[in-house]
Amino acid sequence: MIKVVKKASVVSALLAVVFMAFQVLADLYLPNMTSNIIDNGVAKGDIDYIWRIGGIMMIISVISIIAAFGNAFFATRESQRLGKKLRTEIYKKAENFSINKFGNYGAASLITRTTNDVEQVQRVMQMFLRLMIQAPIMLLGASFLAYQKDAQLTKVFLVVIPLVIVAVGGIMYFAVPLFRSMQKKTDRINLIFREELTGVRVIRAFNKENHETDRFDQANRDFTHTAIKVNTIVAFMMPLMTLIMSGTNIGITWFGGQYIADMQLQVGNMIAFITYAMQILISFMMLSMIFVMVPRAQASADRINEVLEETPDITDKKQPEEISLSKEEATLTFDKVNFRYADADSLALEDVNFKAKAGQTVAIIGGTGSGKTTFANLLPRLHEVSSGTIRLNGHDIRNIRQHDLRELIGFVPQTAVLFRGTIRENMRYGNVEASEEQIWQALKIAQAQDFVLEMPDGLDSHVEQGGGNFSGGQRQRLAIARALIKAADLYVFDDSFSALDFKTDANLRQALQQEIQNAIKVIVAQRVSTIMDADIILVLEAGKVVGKGTHKELLDNNKTYQEIAYSQLREEDLK
Ligand SMILES: Nc1ncnc2c1ncn2[C@@H]1O[C@H](COP(=O)(O)OP(=O)(O)OP(=O)(O)O)[C@@H](O)[C@H]1O
């Protein structure tokens, strides 16, 4: 918790504390003046005294109000700033996570950590700056002043304080573990909800709405059940404290009345004593609220820290090599490349070797799970090779800044992701300075020009979140165009032609061949027809390259390739 809260500004926090100190001092001083006004003004009928002290009390009250406002302002501002800072830090950290790390946490948990967990810490920070300081000062100050007013009456506290400790302790004992578990349950609700939203089509197609609703209901019920339980327990706090406060009041009045009758105590002092007693009990209540909230926020702070303290598994070298666009000089080399996922027993890619030069097309083909996407992800360093070397334009890609490397690569992922906005904004994601002409040229190569032209708003047509208002094939073509808009030495298409019909697929490949002549193209595909013209075809089987060559060579002498090819096309189509 301290690690997280330390990120707040010391100056603002100090200002909040100073204002709070003024407020507490004013609040502690007022009962003393009330006692004076009663004993010296009211009892003796001294109207001047009442006016004078009354006036001073008004001024002190105004100071108390200003101090309370100042404290609230700085406490709120600093806690909000801390929240903003934490959200930004988590976001930046998560943005740089490798695909592996991202998968370990899961999107739902990262969202809960950025929103709910940060809110918990923010709330405690605000409370800390308001109550955490107020409560102890008030407790000590009020105890001291009460003792000064009448030492005999403090014996009431011998009964009251143990009672308060038992009541508050009991409530905390039951509530704190429940508060802790609520954070995990919030995570679970977010996870299920997110999964259901992203998988809504599958859920409907399989008629699993009821099953999913039950799953969500169960998590929701579990969370609500815990929340009700914990709030019921905490709800006892108020009536219990009111009971104790009333009891204290009666005790003080009972003993105080006797002392007044014996002329050992003045009425004003008794009234002041009652106010101090209430302040002592309120301080206990504030402290107990802090003790209830801190463990819950501690759980949140731990979850935030877990993300912030992650060491990135893919980092830039301290003195990276400089690289720039090579155009016709581009080269790509895989030298004994192996890759293993962190939690896997076997290699996902084993001993991959090849060389490609500017203008060439490298194709990767293989069955599902053979390692094709893994291969594609190694190129922009979304994963880091376990051993061996990948060289782009002669540079080991581990020696280049990730940013510089990715500037040289046009990447089309397996799932075409578009962002909410317009087609033009999505296209400019690839190159912010792309001219109108460049955008249309990229759309033309990607075979997306026609359908964009047909849309009433053309490039200004609206794109829904994830590109939901486009067909799978249209999304793929827009994602391809977005990558092509970028001047790159290497274009990677991870199964990016799979949703295209054969004719569009062929036209696209032809356009790529004609228009993108200098760059190296890496095409991952399941369809032989997509990669027939490639200069180098790598056939993957369980992560191993079981064939390497051109379509003709492989068709003549590679059994795996023959099996794939003959299962998809007729013999005459393969020539
Ligand atoms: N994050 C991961 N952690 C552990 N193993 C993984 C992970 N991602 C993929 N794998 C495993 O690595 C192997 C290769 O997966 P990859 O996604 O590269 O296959 P693919 O050829 O692209 O398959 P597909 O054509 O179905 O997309 C598979 O056995 C898969 O189970």
Briefly, what is this?
The protein is α/β, with parallel strands linked by helices and 575 residues long. It has helices at 2-5, 10-42, 47-95, 99-105, 107-149, 156-198, 200-205, 209-235, 237-261, 267-308, 372-378, 402-407, 423-428, 436-445, 449-454, 472-484, 502-515, 528-531, 551-557, 559-568; strands spanning 331-339, 349-357, 361-366, 387-392, 395-396, 409-412, 421-422, 462-463, 490-494, 520-525, 536-541, 544-549.
List keywords for this structure.
alpha/beta, ABC transporter transmembrane region fold, Rossmann fold, six-stranded mixed β-sheet, four-stranded antiparallel β-sheet, 20 helices, 11% strand, binds adenosine-5'-triphosphate
How would you characterize this protein structure?
This protein has 575 residues and is α/β, with parallel strands linked by helices. The protein has helices at 2-5, 10-42, 47-95, 99-105, 107-149, 156-198, 200-205, 209-235, 237-261, 267-308, 372-378, 402-407, 423-428, 436-445, 449-454, 472-484, 502-515, 528-531, 551-557, 559-568, and strands at 331-339, 349-357, 361-366, 387-392, 395-396, 409-412, 421-422, 462-463, 490-494, 520-525, 536-541, 544-549. Among the domains are: 2-308, ABC transporter transmembrane region fold (Up-down Bundle), CATH 1.20.1560; 416-487, P-loop containing nucleotide triphosphate hydrolases (Rossmann fold), CATH 3.40.50.300. The chain has 20 helices and 12 strands. The chain has a 6-stranded mixed sheet with strand order 6-9-10-3-11-12, with helices on both faces. α14 (436-445) crosses α16. The longest helix is centred in the N-terminal third of the chain and has 49 residues, at 47-95. The mean pLDDT is 87. The chain binds adenosine-5'-triphosphate. The site of adenosine-5'-triphosphate has 14 residues, from α4 and α11.
